[in-house]
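Case study.
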Amino acid sequence: MIRLYEYWRSSSSYRVRIGLNLLGLAYESVQIDLAGGQQSTAENLARNPQGIVPTLEIEGLRLTQSLAILEYLDEQYAAGWLPGNARDRARVRAIAMAIAMEIQPVCNLRVAKDAVSASGGTYSLESWMRDHIGPGLAAVETMLDHPQTGRFCHGDAVSLADICLLPQVYNARRWGVDMNQFTQISRIEAEMLALDAVRMAHPDTYTLA
Amino acid sequence: MIRLYEYWRSSSSYRVRIGLNLLGLAYESVQIDLAGGQQSTAENLARNPQGIVPTLEIEGLRLTQSLAILEYLDEQYAAGWLPGNARDRARVRAIAMAIAMEIQPVCNLRVAKDAVSASGGTYSLESWMRDHIGPGLAAVETMLDHPQTGRFCHGDAVSLADICLLPQVYNARRWGVDMNQFTQISRIEAEMLALDAVRMAHPDTYTLA
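After joint prediction, the assembly is written out as follows.
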């Protein structure tokens, strides 16, 4: 029994849903309502000391941090989300981390709300998000201007980079970032969304409790 | 010839310095003065599309993103920074990422200055740093309250987690976070600083240009 403690709109949860679906692993989704503060309950803190989502219960383990979870799934289920040699793995991980470390944490709702509320009107949630997602994705677009970019971020198979990219694009669109300027990213978004397993992980497939 | 484009005070640069030193790999350090805006020059953007540090030139490659770099070094030089089985690797990566994804990006100087300047006095750089580093390290301390914690974060050998932890502790002390509350982290800090290779990577060993 695989159980994913997650939130439908959380992009790090969305990453893990894509991974599980691509592997065809059935799981129970337990929604932790970030908007309602459920991430900070004693129950959630016991399973995730950082008070965030996602947490994956699998094979008697309780795993946190979406990229650590995806690397685990890749290793245990031979997912093929990382290329066969070290230099190419470094490229894929660098793209994934350019998203997961440079863009997403700054646009984490808690951090963004903190900055916006302290700004007393200088920043709106929308402008904070746009100011940080836009330049971040521009850098990723530059990284994708590379001979090894194929149908997906690296060659013609889904990698860790694509699994991180799609949820960030969802967020970018949500906050009104102009995606037309990013041709490689938009093209890869379409490739990803053409896959049933990926589409099934989309936040819109969830109904609010 | 290995060349590291980095900044003495950057914690992600500090991670890579620790890694290179632990492996006994000699390298040339090229300082990119973040305080002086050198990260945004055309030269630096050409080697690092995100306009940050570090960038590692090694074996004809140009690698970015500190954790992707460390995973590369671990693979190519059999560094042993990740344990032998998937469940333990997931634990080590989760601790490393709890630091590198949840704490460090929010306390990136660019992001912090942005939030502080928009706050018009509500936040100082010091208070922004403390508000985000303190709770982040508290969560890491909880993760270290675990039977697999040994001399270091995972067992008795240096792992990716320790390499991420030490620079974050340096930052925490710099911004006045009370480290006495974190007994496991402080103990591991001391273990790390007892190693010559690690001590050689410390920001204090650098003189400003």
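Observations recorded in class. The beta strands of chain B are 3-6, 28-31, 55-58, 61-64. DSSP finds nine helices and four strands in chain B. We will return to this complex in the next lecture.
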